Give the backbone structure.
Amino acid sequence: MNQIMIAITPQIIVDFKKYHVEYNQLDDLRIKEHTEIYEAIRDQNPKLAKKRMKEHFKLLYEYCDIS
């Protein structure tokens, strides 16, 4: 399953950027989310890191209709 996701994710992201009207307006949010993910990993808190990753991919999940 991981191999499949690795293969298709780049195209999903390209399409998301192309068709998501507000994508370029989300830069500040993406920086904040990446910082929070980094901090959770740095602090060796896997539960928080997982939560932050889910939050970070929320819009992409919605775009892909993944629950």
